[in-house]
Amino acid sequence: MKFWDREKEKEWLKRYLKSEPNAILFVYGPKSSGKSTLLYQAVKELSKRKWFLQKYGMYWYDLRGKMISSYRDVVDVFFRTEDTEAGRFISSVEREVDIGLPVLASFKVKASLKNEFYSKLADPFEYMEAVLRKSRKKHVIVFDELQKLKEVYINGENQRPVVKELFNFFVRLTKVLHLSHVIVMSSDTFFIEEVYNDSTLVNTSRYFLVDYFDNETTQKILEDEGFSKKDAKEMAKLIGGVPWIIEEVIKDGRETLNSLYREVKGNVREIMTSIYEQDEKIYGLVVEFLKKIISEGKGKLLKEDRKVAKILVEKELLFYDPLDGDVRFQTELHRRVADELLKSGEI
Predict the structure, then answer these.
(1) Which fold has domain 253-344?
(2) Rg of the chain, C-alpha, whole Å
């Protein structure tokens, strides 16, 4: 995806990466708001400086699309045995991200030690810390969609959550030892809220919102890509500032917008049908809540609305910012579609 006008956010991240590791950084925002692209760009620009290449190394764990249901799966995410297959995997990741800094997909271990991790005879965190200590570099460790681990336990169901142990380790790496930056990226804002409200993480974490572009920025992007001022202003109002939607509109024009509108409409219908089939009473509450958000544009999430809002956020119809308590539609297209379906009586 093309990188557009994130100068302020990019410079903030560059300053953060150059600073002494001292806190876990949560980069959060709506789905496809450009979190990964922004971080790629910040690291890519820093990597043009020789001192940064000499001083920093990087691990990047992208958990999207991975099946992770057990502690063994988690060990497989973090560690690769020293064989040719692992070498090919790491090389492919380096080529894929193309940010100028060598990026590792996992820690290399001997097969015998990995088996000890599986059986819990050895502590994987101690090994990772030892590797980072041995290195002469500071490191940046990135986790994309870490919430996928939140239902995984070390000793079976409801025993020692992996995520809890991980965050204790992250605090040690950042706040205590200053060995590595740890960046957690997620669009699951209820997961972010759980972490934010965890008393053990107070004063150990920072939070950085990567939101969609505002209408003014979207209009400027479209004008720079050849749209007239009038068309750019109209399109910006219609599509909002979702990077991937902007990119599609630039490639194929208004026809793409019409196609996306139909796609979102079908998706919203499907979401509402599934809610209705599961619980008619909840469905009624969902409809009233959507009407409220449409009329207000966005609103503070009240305690009595949390159950309904969580359903709609998990289904990616709404976005919730846990730091200021605001909830709104995921995109402008979702708001327009929901409004149309409510007015027509289809939902």
Answers:
(1) Arc Repressor Mutant, subunit A (1.10.10)
(2) 22
Residue with tokens 């820093």: 46
pLDDT category of residue 86 using cuts at 50, 70 and 90: very low
**How far is C-alpha 268 from the chain's CA centre?**
22
Terminal Cα distance for the chain, rounded:
34
Helix, strand, or coil here: 33?
Answer: coil
Angle between helices 280-296 and 254-278 (to 10 degrees): 140
> What are the residue ranges of helices labelled H in the chain?
7-18, 35-46, 50-55, 71-78, 84-97, 111-119, 124-134, 162-171, 189-196, 215-224, 229-239, 243-252, 254-278, 280-296, 306-314, 332-344
User: 87: how many CB neighbours lie within 10 A of its CB?
Assistant: 12
Question: Residue 83: is its pLDDT beyond 60?
Answer: no
How far CA 153 is from CA of 72, 116, 121, 143, 201, in Å, comes to: 10, 17, 16, 18, 20
Q: What angle do CA 200, 202, 203 make, to 5 degrees?
A: 130
DSSP 31: T
Q: Whole-prediction pTM value?
A: 0.89
Q: How far is CA 34 from the centre of its chain?
A: 9
Q: CATH number of the domain at 7-209, please?
A: 3.40.50.300
Mean pLDDT of the chain: 88
**Phi, psi (degrees; rounded to nearest 5) at 183:** -120, 125
Do 253-344 and 7-209 have the same topology in CATH?
no
Q: Would you list the domain boundaries of the chain?
A: 7-209, 253-344
